[in-house]
Amino acid sequence: MTTRPTLLGYVRADALSCAEELAAATDSLAAFASAEGFTLGTVYTERDAAESAAFHALLDEVKRSDVRAVVVPTMNHLGVDNGAPAALRQHLEFHQAQVWAVDSIVTTP
What we know:
Elements: E1 6-12, H1 19-35, E2 39-46, H2 53-64, E3 69-72, H3 87-94, E4 98-101
Parallel strand pairs: 1-2, 1-3, 3-4
């Protein structure tokens, strides 16, 4: 049996309008992980973007573990607007974590 690599998730609650959207976003991360051959590990949920506690916990896990993949519902969860890389994404990539957004994956029938 082959072990699937772990993929971590990151969601900003303030980027969503309600608890149902948060649940749907988390479900989309799990579906992405499964479809792409990963096991979804911890999903870090940022409740207060000003403090960034969840992001720092995510970054700490990337630094101390062999996990090298992070998924977000959209790049907006990392503060990416108009295609410009945000500091949060740059921090992850600096520590060799590949970053994916669920909404940017295009599948063909």
